[in-house]
Amino acid sequence: MLLQFIINGVAYGSIIGMCAIGLALIYNTTKIFHFAHAGIFTISVYTFYFLISKLQISLILSFFISSLFSSFIALLIDKLFYIPILNRKATSTAYTITSLAIYITIVNIISIFFGNETKILKQGIDKTYEIGSAIITKTQLLEIITYLLFFLFLFLFLSYTKTGRLLRAVSSNYKLSKALGVDIKKIRTIAFFLGSFLAAIAANLNGLDIGTDPHSGMPIFLNSAVAMIVGGIGQFIPAAISGIIIGIIQSLVVYKFSAKWQMATTFVILLIILLFRPQGIFSSQKRIEEKI
Amino acid sequence: MNYLIHIIIIIQIYILLTLSFNLLLGYSNLFSLAHAAFYGLGAYTASLLMLNLNFNYFFTIPIIIIAASLFSIIVASPSIKLKGDYFMLSTMAFQILIFNIFNNWIELTRGPYGISGIPSPSILGYQLSGPYIYCLFISIVTLISITIFYRLHKSLFGLFLKSIRDDEMLSISLAKPTYKLKIISFVIAGIFASIAGSLYATYISYIDPTIFSLEESVFIMTAVVVGGSGNLKGPLIGTLFIITIPEILRFIGFPDSIAANLRQIIYAITLILVMRYRPQGLVGEYKLE
After folding, report:
1. Where are the domains of chain B?
2. How large is the ipTM?
3. Measured between CB atoms, which of A88, A96, A222 is closest to B289?
């Protein structure tokens, strides 16, 4: 029984982890607390739903079209809404408010067009595999495999490619990178595109697994934001790992107590981290002027 | 006419909420997303005391003030040490925890079913029920509150908060107790939000957790940001805007199924536009840059 909950936790954690690393890419390079990430999540899964159920396009093709489409929407959001206030030298509050407002707009537009009820993306019952006494569905397995692939890809990308290293440079010291002539705009675009693409893939997989409604993006976004902070700001890979940890903890809470305390658990974790280790569990102590 | 009185009462409840939120955002530069938690704390404390222990409404007020102060200190003392996004996240965490307690602690709060049959306040055995009497009562409360906030605005305390908002390092170097001042402002804001909650509960006589969710915190924030913060005009104008928009939409005659979504979209787009073109809000003093 416990094994079953851990498997469910890892599968859900893979979704959170992918979203978290996407959010980390965006937050670390731009310092925008990107609530609209949850909106991108919802846009992707609804586009996916629209393509497969209304336009009857094949599953795999719609999967990728919807992910790319929502990533371009994210770039558009950056160009239309974030860049203008960046030019005004806005503080984090202005970004947060703008981002929250974009999220609210997206969710309500989707809700007008598609309604508030839960949409099921896949008909029939998933194929299942047995692991000891527990079972894992094909979609859950797909989630975990995709997560591992992206994990590997990002690790290699951030460690060994020039763009990946520049991305890390910008996220560790924005001003210095700019002074040294790093093409900040390009890095920003890459971060937004890649980050949103990850969220979109996670959204589509999650939609295949448990269906979707217009508000399904927010809980996953909040979990992934907590995962990002637990992992430590300025870091990429730890965000993905703590995503899995949060997924497992949530699943264990369901096992021990009740599903209704899931969200509360995440935020208790966040408060503990913010109180005792605001730099995250995987980061070392920062110098005092860099402290949060 | 009763409809108009109802709108006026709701506007006054929101004036308490926005004025207290303004003390946080516009004076101390604390972008809190926990305001609806205080609103709910007041509402639930008043309702539970009145229904379970037969308290008179006016005797619940001291208890609400104590509860709100304690909760403010619990929320503020760790959160204020964090900056920017982290402060926002920390308050959001408290907001979601409180919502979960309202929603899931069914033995105490009846969870999603909500609490119904909350009695109106009574003075010396005289029930303050009926829209006109209640409107008079709440107008007195609002007037007193506006006076208090005006005095705070003019006081040295208000000036200190503004100095922290504009240049925190300078205030620290002038030996101002910035941490303590911010906590005091958080406590005052929490108390007023809780009182607004108790007024709402006794007026509507029914509460459920969804009224005090994160969305409500965002809603209060919208009113203050759109109206403007840092003075008293801003929140008042913001409240008028945010309460009258849905009523106007109702008269234009949009179908009910999309009216709620449309209202949200209008608020959100207004927020985006305000952030882009007028960061101080319509009549505000503090620029959210």
Report:
1. 2-212
2. 0.88
3. A88
